[in-house]
Amino acid sequence: MDRRPANAKVDDRDSKFELLVKDIVNGKTDRFLCATPSDAKRYEERVLDTLSQLKLWISDNAETSEGIVVEF
Questions:
Q1: Which of 1, 17, 46, 51 has its CA 20 to 30 A from that of 57?
Q2: Using an 8 Å Cβ cutoff, are 63 and 34 in contact?
Q3: The whole model's pTM is what?
Q4: Is residue 4 over pLDDT 80?
Q5: Could you give the CA distance from residue 30 to residue 13 in angstroms, rounded to a whole number?
Q6: Nearest CA to 1 among 9, 61, 14, 40?
Q7: Are residues 30 and 44 in contact, defined by beta-carbon separation less than 8 angstroms?
């Protein structure tokens, strides 16, 4: 998810603005600063929508069949 603010410096590393799934799973607080409460609400909606899409992608790509044994 692109979270690079408009006032970021050109030489800032992209990793500075990354929100990783592992951070969310590990309970790390997301401290992304929004300019207004309205921006914060839209940001929250984007994060929740992105997580919902990720969940659908994982379930679509999950192995759901029984294992197959092939003998040589």
A1: 17
A2: no
A3: 0.69
A4: no
A5: 18
A6: 14
A7: no
With a CB cutoff of 8 Å and minimum separation 6, the contacts of 3 are 17, 18, 19, 32
- Which residue reads 């921006």 in tokens? 39
- The model's pLDDT over 16-72, given as tens digits with 9 standing for 90+, comes to 788 888 988 999 988 888 888 998 899 999 999 999 999 999 988 887 777 778 887
The Cα 46–Cα 68 span in angstroms is 40
29 contacts 23 by C-beta, under 8 angstroms = no
**Rounded Cα–Cα distance for residues 47 and 45 (Å):** 5
Q: Do 50 and 32 meet the contact criterion of CB atoms below 8 Å apart? A: no
